[in-house]
Amino acid sequence: MQTIENIYVDGAFTTPKGEERLPLFNPSTEEQIGTVRLGNIEDVAIAVASAKRAFPRVSRTTKSERIAMLQRLSAAVLARAAELTAVMAEEYGAPAYVTGFSIPHAASVFLDMARTLETYEFHRTIGRAAVEMRPSGIAAAITPWNSNIGFICSKLATAVAAGTSIVIKPSEMSAIQTHLLTECLHEAGLPAGVFNIVNGKGPVVGAALSTHPDIAKISFTGSTATGRSILAAAADSMKRVTLELGGKSPTIILDDADLDRAIPHALMVGFGNSGQACIAGTRILAPASRLDEIKDRLRAAVAGIKVGAPSDPEVRIGPMVSQTQWDRVQAYIRLGQAEGATLLTGGEGRPDGLNRGWFVKPTVFAEVSNQMRIAREEIFGPVLCLIPYESEAEAIEIANDTSYGLASYVLSSDLDRAKRVAAQLEAGRVAINDAPHEPLAPFGGFKQSGIGREFGVFGLDSFLEPRAVLV
After folding, report:
1. Could you tell me the keywords of this UniProt record (predicted)?
2. pLDDT score at 57
3. Average pLDDT, stretch 70-89?
4. Is 244 annotated in the active site?
5. If you average pLDDT over residues 102-126, what whole number do you get?
6. Per-residue pLDDT averaged across 433-455, rounded?
7. Residue 170 above 90 pLDDT?
8. With helix as H, strand as E and coil as C, how does the chain read?
């Protein structure tokens, strides 16, 4: 049992003023593995004051000094990669392939931002004006539980590159991961107050950051509902906001697709991170002319997907993060049946042989209309909808008929055709076939999937404000 009693403020681990404690669980076993003492509004005030003291110094750092800080942060995370992997598996239940990507990615985001800095022009001449890109001011970051370590690192990397200090509120459900990561970040030896980390609940710590008059910039990743609340709270003081929110992403299987490649890929992007991913391709759009074949292949492929604890390297779907999340997914599986969709595979309850742990049967619904709630609302679990279409134009129409616009996927044997379809999709990121991740490309959504972009030069821009000097 691990007890987390500290937050991180002004370069040191300190005891929070808040006294509320929250139990922490292993989602694979449902056993309590720790407790965390939560910060409160007073802790936010202290952390913001620390960041405010640090801001003048960090904002005057040179590009080379920021690059050096980013390199030290990367090395500090990488040095304890094995421990971070183990704690992410225990507290979150992430399968081995998820931790195998997530932890190296968390270390590499600092180096990606260092690469961005190398060629970034903070001083520009436009006509007769000298333009300087200056940090917006003290930043706040609010991060979710589905990739706790990665989100903390990516937002911290951007703040350091921009020359700003930051207060981070991670998910309170990820406190053991956060504590170990904070130990790593502390070892990088950044000046006191450049980053501060306060555990706490969204309605308390998150709300206090969203309204604090000294916070100039908020970067939030999480649900659309919470994003709306943050945006409204930030409006009073005109805070700059970056919101990376929910998604209901389409995976379009064109009628010329090689199903030997397309079906595994559709399931990978749909069930990745156990379905607890904002970019999950949860709506599979299939040509009516090949619908029966696609149904058979999906049914057979899902039968071969292993669900279980992260200790088994063959597992592809781990547990839901909490009992609350498990209940939410179960409710949507019941709703899909009530709406008239057909269970192609999966359904309610735990998979056979798993009597404990918040595990969900990988589920695919057929006979789904795009107007059903299971096709329109973000479920955040391993539940997919198979939606037929008659023509390419209808596929595009269905894909765009959503309040979200975070990601889209196009699977085709004809690359030029796939590009034509991709060009018509309303999403912040479109992946064609098995396109690899590009860490410097902008990431964010259209419509209710958010505001602004993260990563690379676009993410750095979002923490800066241009100032023109006319001579």
Report:
1. Oxidoreductase
2. 97
3. 98
4. yes
5. 97
6. 95
7. yes
8. CEEECCEEECCEEECCCCCCEEEEEECCCCEEEEEEECCCHHHHHHHHHHHHHHHHHHHCCCHHHHHHHHHHHHHHHHCCHHHHHHHHHHHHCCCHHHHHHHHHHHHHHHHHHHHHHHHCCCEEEECCEEEEEEECCCEEEECCCCCHHHHHHHHHHHHHHHCCCEEEECCHHHHHHHHHHHHHHHHCCCCCCCEEECCCCHHHHHHHHHHCCCCCEEEEECCHHHHHHHHHHHHCCCCEEEEECCCCCEEEECCCCCHHHHHHHHHHHHHHHHHCCCCCCCEEEEEHHHHHHHHHHHHHHHHCCCECCCCCCCCCECCCCCHHHHHHHHHHHHHHHHCCCEEEECCCCCCCCCCCCCCCCCEEEECCCCCCHHHHCCCCCCEEEEEEECCHHHHHHHHHCCCCCCEEEEECCCHHHHHHHHCCCCCCEEEECCCCCCCCCCECCCHHHEECCECHHHHHHCCEEEEEEEC
- Mark whether 211 and 284 lie in a shared domain: no
**pLDDT, position 334:** 98
Q: What is the pTM of this model?
A: 0.97
Q: Is the residue at 463 inside a domain? A: yes
- pLDDT value of position 471: 84
Q: In whole angstroms, how large is the CA radius of gyration of the chain?
A: 22
Shared domain for 416 and 312, answered yes or no, is yes
In a domain, 437, yes or no: no
As a whole-number percent, the residues of the chain with pLDDT over 70 amount to 100
The boundaries of the domain holding residue 12 are 2-245+447-470
Question: Same structural domain for residues 182 and 312?
Answer: no
The pLDDT of residue 418 is 98
pLDDT at 368 exceeding the cut of 90: yes
List 90, 91, 244, 367, catalytic entry: 244
| Domain at 10, CATH number | 3.40.605.10
Instruction: Name 105's Cβ contacts closer than 8 Å, sequence gap at least 6.
Output: 150, 439
- Return mean pLDDT, the chain: 97
Judgement on whether residues 140 and 82 belong to the same structural domain of the protein: yes
Residue 429: pLDDT over 90: yes
Considering the domain architecture, whether residues 235 and 314 belong to the same structural domain is answered as no
Which CATH number does the domain housing residue 421 bear? Answer: 3.40.309.10
Q: Using 50, 70 and 90 to split pLDDT, how confident is the model at 463?
A: very high
CA pair distance 88, 174, nearest whole angstrom: 9
Number of domains making up the chain: 2
Regarding whether 260 and 360 lie in a shared domain, the answer is yes
Residues 385 and 339 in one domain: yes
Question: Whole-angstrom Cα distance, residue 333 to residue 351?
Answer: 14
Do residue 102 and residue 228 come from a single domain? Answer: yes
Mean predicted confidence (pLDDT) in 334-341: 98
